[in-house]
2',5'-phosphodiesterase 12 (Lynx canadensis), 608 residues
Amino acid sequence: MWRLPGSRAALRGVRTAVGRHTRAEAATETAAGAMERAVVRCVPSEPKLSLSFALADGSHKNMQRDQSEPLGRALSRIATNALKGHAKAAAAKKSRKNRPNASGGACAGPVPEPAAACEPVVKLYYREEAVAEDVLNVDAWQDGAVLQIGDVKYKVERNPPAFTELQLPRYIMAGFPVCPKLSLEFGDPANSLFRWYKEAKPGAAEPEGGSPSSLSPSSPFPSWTETGVNERVYTPSNADIGLRLKLHCTPGNGQRFGPSRELESVCPVEAGPGTCTFDQRHLYTKKVTDDSLIRTVSYNLLADTYAQTEFSRSVLYPYCAPYALELDYRQNLIQKELTGYNADLICLQEVDRNVFTDSLVPALEAFGLEGVFRIKQHEGLATFYRKTKFTLLSQHDISFHEALESDRLHKELLEKLVLYPSAQERVLQRSSVLQVSVLQSTKDSSKRICVANTHLYWHPKGGYIRLIQMAVALAHIRHVSCDLYPGIPVIFCGDFNSTPSTGMYHFAVNGSIPEDHEDWASNGEEERCNMSLTHVFKLKSACGEPAYTNYVGGFHGCLDYIFIDSNALEVEQVIPLPSHEEVTTHQALPSVSHPSDHIALVCDLKWK
């Protein structure tokens, strides 16, 4: 039997600790402490399995082997790797002994040549019996098997919970929740363990008994102290300003835990902006509503692709501090604002794809919401729903111009539009989309709801285009809520780019628009397209007609609405908008205390 010179521990690499402070973590470490860990990932949809274990030189070996390969070949390769690891360790030991000593001379005494190593005996055991070398890898590497390399044993863990992605936000502010972006395989966040640390302040006394992550004062590396927070989300306090954060997390699935990982924030915690426009609003939304209510939010976030232009900085928002237009800064405010509403439904407009995946999903998922995304061109729409209240039954998203041209639902409308070629061309050039999600109550399967979300064409002279987009939207929503799911109520959120005096709003709340309405000529006589339109819904604006939902230097007005089916839903409460003083503290929006040029609409709806 091959053995390394010196103690058996020399073969062991850096162990993956599974924590020392919670009972679950301690139990995990006790179970895995008797031997090293060999992690095997093997899924039917992939041709190869991966094997990960510690080498003699302290490094970690990751191997990829065909699932259909005989075990003997894999074991032979492992033996070769172990031998290389032994050779590296021996060479490093010899190099250390040849270094000059503290007095400047060479180390006394001859350095013996390391004994020539032979290839170690490598075996795989299952239930204390050696696994035959002609067994295929896919069958050989079972959970609980034991891999033996020389006299060192590794416990095989097949498909343990593991993080496939783990990331902290780059910009962290005191008073704002830090929501790590994470993805798991064979596990879930609810059954995983999290422990937050912060850098020890220079000169701070080490806690009594030390800390598993603390280092001596003379160490060139930072020392860490526990924050006492063992949850997925950590909100730094003012005492953390200037300090970096560290997250230690152990993936779990309710049955067992996988290898732990640690990551540190790139930058220290920075001071927050003080009072924000949404702080007072959060006083009305401290708790999640009961099952009879649906707290609904509609919010145009101001896409980063529009905020980060020279035109935006110098013309649209010259009053806004440049750093407050930076995405990393605004995301802190957006995350805190949205999570503080404790909403059941959140419909967002102007959502960058990377903002959805890297910021909104991690933050809102940590607070119990799940989301779907629909791209437009450079940005899109997102709808989030509370998982304890709703499940997603189906999605029915459309692009307005594609649906108008190809869906027979809109045949009559298209026939009217083709009579006006200039208007038709302009309408079909627009990229606006409609996101439609059908949700079902988790408590009562008979309760379903159609949630629609849109962002209509923006141009001030595009009134007739918005009318036609709204007609397409309502016809499509009628198809979903009447034909596909007969009788389900509708919530229709969005930035409609229309004030209450416009034809679009008149059409929405009155159910019809006459052909002589002035908006049919909103861009002049050349594009006039007179037509009468109707729809079947009885819609009302749940939040009424606020003085404004958009407030920028050159304009303020009400452009955003939460339309509800008043036959099936009623308004329980409208969360007050920020005061005019709060909105104009920094002249207009966005600002250091408000992340968008729009204001979120928030209301509690009730089933009739």
About this structure: The domain at 36-86+120-158 is CATH 3.10.20 (Ubiquitin-like (UB roll)). The radius of gyration is 31 Å. The mean pLDDT is 89.
